[in-house]
TrEMBL record:
<dbReference type="InterPro" id="IPR036942">
    <property type="entry name" value="Beta-barrel_TonB_sf"/>
</dbReference>
<dbReference type="InterPro" id="IPR023996">
    <property type="entry name" value="TonB-dep_OMP_SusC/RagA"/>
</dbReference>
<dbReference type="InterPro" id="IPR000531">
    <property type="entry name" value="Beta-barrel_TonB"/>
</dbReference>
<keyword id="KW-1134">Transmembrane beta strand</keyword>
<keyword id="KW-0406">Ion transport</keyword>
<keyword id="KW-0410">Iron transport</keyword>
<comment type="similarity">
    <text>Belongs to the TonB-dependent receptor family.</text>
</comment>
<keyword id="KW-0408">Iron</keyword>
<dbReference type="GO" id="GO:0009279">
    <property type="term" value="C:cell outer membrane"/>
</dbReference>
<feature type="domain" description="TonB-dependent receptor-like beta-barrel">
    <location>
        <begin position="418"/>
        <end position="942"/>
    </location>
</feature>
<protein>
    <submittedName>
        <fullName>SusC/RagA family TonB-linked outer membrane protein</fullName>
    </submittedName>
</protein>
<dbReference type="InterPro" id="IPR039426">
    <property type="entry name" value="TonB-dep_rcpt-like"/>
</dbReference>
<keyword id="KW-0798">TonB box</keyword>
<keyword id="KW-0472">Membrane</keyword>
<dbReference type="Pfam" id="PF07715">
    <property type="entry name" value="Plug"/>
</dbReference>
<dbReference type="InterPro" id="IPR023997">
    <property type="entry name" value="TonB-dep_OMP_SusC/RagA_CS"/>
</dbReference>
<dbReference type="InterPro" id="IPR012910">
    <property type="entry name" value="Plug_dom"/>
</dbReference>
Length: 986
């Protein structure tokens, strides 16, 4: 923290504070969205918005330039109706789970939206973004933890984004095939746009500083122990040792003296010490994080040639000590018009992300979350700082209160999770126009990922007493080639446009894994230093999809538009008999304001749209035949536990959508409304099977899910004068899904789609919803009173019940933009209503008496009586009078398996971002030989309202590589950010 403050002071004193780029917005950017606007649709085809029979919402570059995030996608949170950017709260890279219009598949990893960059789909998702192979809940397993190593979205530089078009429904993305069944984000990167062949330079810079947004409500009235009478670290004249527990049910802080831990002696103090709380012994571990980014772009264009190139370097030091990353981006774009027929363009993007240490997340000895849960209010954080015991450097750590709780500074400075990731994406496009009617496009794109990961665990760590070292080498290559022929013509008032083509996509993924189980020499992290070396030969994971497709657009008088699409895929992940599958779509747009001559200065347009689409979804590779996995034992394999299905069929997603768009008051008020329904059937799911078959599960096609929703958005400019303007934007979306059918094998019994930590079950029942959470609840009387047993603790239920649903009832966002001459003030709020989340952290901290609500009922005797009733032999109820120890009561009432008492409403409102900017007048920038100069102060997540008791209600768990909403296990703190910006163009 001191280092970051010194760095900031030094920069201010020298007058060289670097600040974030925020491209200066011109006044015309305040105009609201027009029906004539051109947007990028499937296959990169540019269309006028009025011709589309579905929603295609465009997000301009200012959104990403003004609100800088380590993962640019988070800038769209709350700004697009129906879009949710979910992170796991697992560190600075912030891998994102982007969904559009809720959940549709019973398999959680099949709900991601497709990311398309300059017409080339990214092979993003949990399969490519491999995890560490470990679960979020790992206490007592002796294993490791999940680490957020970033996903493909992190490789995209926000400064290079020209726009993002959000295609929400299957109709909008039908031409992209199975991966776009959940919608798509069409990213268009910047290209040279300066005029008259002049070279233009843009320098963008920002500095931002992070602090923890919200803390749990810690109690600092009672210290370590389970008895309120006394405390003793080790056996002492005061009594037996009470210093080995992780609970805070010990004596109250009243100025008394006890034998405590002495860091100089590394044991019991020679004299009694003051019994006192250390209120900063968790918060004081965290620092002020910082991010510095500098970007330089050069561009030029004339009537034939355009080019743009940019370099960006970002350095991040996260809030947890010794964590963070640096990122380098290069982008190049060139296009040349050889003649009136031939145009060739190409784009290349290179990204390198490097980190010596990213934080581990989850509930296990090696995560800082685990330490924060177990840290007691009577223990000084400084006692841990030496890390190693005297004369035991690199051999035995200081963790004097429990051998299961690792030293926090050992976690930060010795348990290192490194990554070196290189991404290359690029494409070349050839456009040829035969004449005014016929054209052809040939495009080839490539995506190459090379990633090296290292995991270091020192001697004496709870799970690796002799140390541990791991190297992983990951390669992923995807090649996309497509050709598209086009025909356009008008026949009087009728217009016809036909596009037809084909594509081939090939993906190849491979991972090498080497593990040193135990180290011969402490601190020497090399595979040759292994006591036992485990090598896993890489297993291929390849996939190929070949496709043909077509799009026909019919129009009448530029007032009625009809689109018809068809696509046929041949997927290598399906058996030969089912490998070929066809899916069509139809959409239509009616410009009612033109059809009925309603246009005026006050009523600008009225559009009615409707669409229907069917999309086929293939399965994952290698689900058709039996494949053996490599064992940790050299030269051996393990049999698969899931029985393959050689007769799999594609899933089918059928989408219906309708809506209206309105423009009023000279396009200063725009409103759109959409209703939709998705039905997904023949889902590829894994169900249990009899163990005597030799397998635990098998793949089948079964089940249907119906997904319905409403979306509304509003853009308006209430005030616009020469020197002042006010623009607002608002959106609201509601989504619900219902499980219509399940496999017949379940005989109407629930199907457990997934479970987290062995206590939260995501069960599917006919009539229920995806995201329904099941677990044990309290036993209650008919009027709702808690039932206790004869032992004074809560009665145990026999069966699990539904506790809630992980997804909210609705979401909303609200943005404001004010301009006073050269000053811009903008801010946005967003939030959600409903949704539930189970908190493992709340369970454990309540069980151990660390939160303020556990002060209720405490007494000098250490006994309390739970509020509720006991059941009498005749079935009646009487008040509970049985007293139990405070530790026993809270340990039972908030036990891990009690989902009810540890699950909370995740409704929230956030001040998502705010910004104040000043753009220097032209007469000043001209003297400085600049075309634009803007300075700004910005903030993110500045304020939050919620009743969720832990760090952040937007909670999810990183379980291996899957981001699971509705469950919090070892969540890391969220950040409040304040930063400075500068943008210079010349």
């Amino acid at each position: 923290m001191k280092r970051n403050i010194q760095k900031l002071i030094a920069l201010v004193l020298t007058g060289t504070v670097t600040v974030e780029m925020a491209a200066q917005q011109k006044q015309d950017t305040l105009s609201v969205r027009s029906i004539e606007e051109v947007v990028v649709t499937a296959l990169g085809i540019k269309r006028q918005d009025k011709a589309l029979g579905y929603v295609a919402e465009k997000v301009d570059s200012e959104t990403f330039e003004e609100t800088q995030n380590n993962n640019w996608a988070q800038s769209m949170e709350g700004k697009v109706a129906g879009l949710k950017v979910q992170t796991a709260g697992a560190g600075p890279l912030g891998s994102a789970r982007i969904t559009l219009r809720g959940e549709k598949s019973m398999f959680m990893d099949n709900n991601y939206a497709l990311i398309v960059v300059d017409g080339i789909p990214l092979s993003d998702g949990p399969r490519v973004n491999s995890g560490t192979g470990t679960a979020a809940y790992g206490a007592g397993t002796g294993g490791d933890l999940p680490i957020d190593l970033g996903n493909g979205l992190n490789s995209i530089n926000p400064d290079d984004i020209e726009s993002v078009t959000v295609l929400k429904g299957a109709s909008a993305a039908a031409l992209y095939g199975s991966r776009a069944a959940n919608g798509a984000l069409m990213i268009t990167t910047k290209s040279g746009k300066s005029r008259n062949g002049k070279i233009a330079f843009t320098f963008n810079s920002y500095s931002s500083f992070d602090s923890v947004l919200k803390w749990p409500d810690y109690q600092h009235e009672y210290g370590q122990g389970t008895m309120p009478q006394y405390y003793s670290y080790g056996v002492s004249p005061d009594g037996n040792s009470t210093g080995g527990t992780s609970s805070a049910f010990g004596p109250k802080f009243n100025g008394q003296y006890y034998f405590q831990y002495d860091p100089t002696l590394e044991g019991q103090s020679s004299e009694r010490q003051l019994w006192r709380p250390y209120k900063d012994n968790v918060k004081g571990f965290w620092e002020v994080g910082s991010t510095y980014s500098n970007s330089l772009a050069i561009e030029s264009s004339n009537d034939k040639t355009s080019f743009r190139t940019s370099l960006t370097y970002l350095e991040n030091e996260w809030m947890m000590p010794n964590t963070g990353f640096d990122r380098f981006n290069f982008a190049g774009s060139v296009a040349h018009q050889f003649n009136d027929k031939l145009r060739i363009s190409g784009k290349l993007n290179y990204n390198r992300t490097h980190s010596d240490n990213l934080p581990a997340t989850g509930y296990n000895n090696q995560s800082i979350s685990y330490f924060m849960i177990f840290q007691n209010p009577s223990i000084d954080l400084a006692w841990y700082k030496p890390i190693w015991k005297k004369d035991q450097y690199k051999i035995d750590q200081i963790h004097p209160f429990s051998s299961f709780i690792d030293n926090p500074y050992l976690i930060a400075y010795e348990m290192l999770n490194g990554v070196d990731k290189r991404n290359i994406t690029g494409n070349i496009t050839v456009d040829y126009r035969f004449n005014n009617h016929f054209s052809a496009m040939l495009r080839s794109g490539v995506e190459i990922l090379n990633e090296v990961r290292t995991t270091k665990r020192p001697y004496s760590s709870a799970n690796y007493l002799k140390g541990f070292y791991r190297e992983q080498f990951i390669t992923n290559q995807e090649y996309n080639n497509d050709v598209l022929f086009g025909y356009k013509n008008n026949f009087g008032k009728f217009g016809l446009s036909v596009s037809a083509g084909g594509s081939m996509r090939y993906n190849e993924y491979m991972m090498n894994d080497y593990r040193a189980e135990g180290l011969k020499i402490p601190g020497d992290y090399m595979l040759t230093n292994a006591i036992s070396l485990i090598t896993k030969v890489p297993k291929p994971y390849d996939e190929q999809v070949s496709s043909v497709y077509g799009l026909t657009t019919l129009s009448f008088d530029d007032k009625i538009f009809v689109d018809i699409t068809g696509r046929n895929d041949w997927s290598s992940t399906l058996p030969a008999a089912n490998r070929s599958f066809f899916y069509p779509s139809v959409s239509s747009s009616f410009i009612l304001s033109d059809l009925f001559s309603l246009r005026s200065s006050q009523f600008n347009f009225w559009k009615l749209r409707a669409s229907w689409a069917k999309v086929g979804i293939d399965g994952s590779p290698y689900q058709l035949e039996k494949y053996y996995d490599l064992s940790d034992i050299q030269g051996s394999v393990t049999a698969p536990s899931t029985y393959p299905n050689p007769n799999l069929k594609p899933e089918i997603n059928t989408n219906i959508e309708a809506g209206m768009d309105f423009g009023l008051l000279g396009n200063r008020l725009n409103y759109n409304f959409t209703v939709y329904q998705n039905n997904t059937r023949n889902q590829i799911i894994r169900i249990p099977t009899l163990y005597e078959t030799g397998y635990s599960h098998r793949w089948i096609n079964a089940g249907e899910v119906r997904n319905r929703g409403i979306e509304m958005s509003l853009d308006a400019t209430p005030v616009r004068t020469k020197n002042f303007s006010w623009k607002i934007g608002a959106n609201w979306s509601m989504n619900e899904n219902q499980i219509m059918s399940l496999p017949a094998e379940f005989n109407n019994e629930p199907y457990t789609m997934s479970t987290v930590a062995g206590v939260v079950y995501f069960n599917a029942e006919v009539g229920g919803s995806l995201g329904d959470m099941y677990g044990f609840k309290l036993v209650r009387t008919p009027d709702g009173q808690v039932v206790f047993g004869d032992n004074g603790l809560t009665a145990r239920p026999a069966n699990i019940e539904k506790v809630g649903n992980a997804f909210p009832k609705w979401r909303a966002g609200f943005q404001n933009d004010f301009r006073f001459g050269n000053v811009q003030v903008s801010f946005s709020f967003d939030g959600q209503y409903g949704g539930m989340a189970y908190s493992q952290t709340h369970h454990k901290m309540s069980e151990q008496g660390k939160l303020t609500h556990t002060l209720n009922g405490r007494s000098d005797t250490g006994m309390m009586v739970g509020e509720g009733v006991v059941q009498n032999p005749d079935g009646s109820y009487s008040p509970n009078t049985k007293s139990v120890t405070v530790a026993s009561y809270y340990g039972d009432y908030y036990r891990r398996a009690n989902i009810e008492t540890n699950t909370f409403d995740t409704s929230f409102i956030k001040l998502r971002d705010a910004r104040i900017a000043y753009s220097f007048p032209k007469n000043i920038t001209k003297q400085l030989r600049m075309t634009e100069l803007t300075l700004a102060l910005f903030g993110k997540n500045l304020w939050m309202w919620t009743e969720f008791p832990m760090f952040d209600p937007e909670v999810a768990t990183l379980d291996n590589s899957t981001i699971t909403p509705g469950v919090e296990i070892g969540q890391l703190p969220s950040a409040r950010t304040i930063g400075f910006q500068i943008n210079v163009k010349f």
